[in-house]
Amino acid sequence: MNQVMNEDPSISIKKAEKIAYENNKLHKRLCRQVGQAIGDFNMIEAGDKVMVCLSGGKDSYGLLDILLTLRERAPIDFDIIAVNLDQKQPNFPAHVLPAYLTRIGVPFHIENQDTYSIVKRVIPEGKTTCSLCSRLRRGILYRVADELGATKIALGHHRDDILETFFLNMFFGAKLKGMPPKLQSDDGKHIVIRPLAYVKEADMERYAEVKQFPIIPCDLCGSQENLQRKQIKAMLREWEKKHPGRVENIFSSLSTVVPSHLMDKDMFGFADLKATGEAVSDGDIAFDEEPCAPPTANVVRFGGLED
Ligand code: SF4
Questions:
Q1: In angstroms, rounded to a whole number, what is the distance separating the alpha carbons of residues 66 and 225?
Q2: Low-confidence stretches of the chain (pLDDT beneath 70)
Q3: Which spans of this chain does the record mark as coiled coil (predicted)?
């Protein structure tokens, strides 16, 4: 207490200015990264109606907030509608999202579907509930997107989700497969987008604190967080601590794939490979060390939406 009272007022002003400066920098960085991901993958086009799926977690709040900022600056017109699926989990504070969305003036739809009871009834006690729960949720959200006339479904997955999924698929599914920033839904009727694809989870955490989003806890369903995902997250954190830049390089490698240097016979015609006598720019320099140049950043912007 004494420390606070005795603190030189000029120091507190400087501290406050520094915090404001850092917060502003964070907001600019998020807008730039989201704008870049939207541009790189042509996620949003003129006339789109983007259905932003809002769970009440930090990532979906952040996604909606940044998309609203970008829409104001965008050279194209598009609509945003927020959608929350109330799965009737015990103690879900149903008033929180409508109150927040009404306050910020965003059109929204709350879909009430008791998937919680279905999952509890069908899955035996102690077994993982997430896969059925997310399958049910997916089907409902696709139907809602149809009913609302949404042309894009935006999800709040970020860079760390993408990397974790990539390693989960490799370690446990024996597949080189991640979580794409843009994809066609499995029913073939919708385009799903992940505008936070370039954003670090730590930035989303800080942004949620800065903006004081009314976060709804994500453990209401009583499910344990997926243990394997937890382990991968810990592995990536450890790497980042011990080898700064490694995680960033792995992430960049997802957009610099060389099929001729992998082993997927369906992706590259190894069987028909013949020497042509012509030099090939990405040919194998079989006896040399691979150069370790950092990847060049892709700088395409979403309609000039940078800072
Ligand atoms: S954590 Fe709970 S709400 Fe989320 S997918 Fe799993 S069962 Fe469903």
A1: 27
A2: 1-7, 224-225, 282-307
A3: none
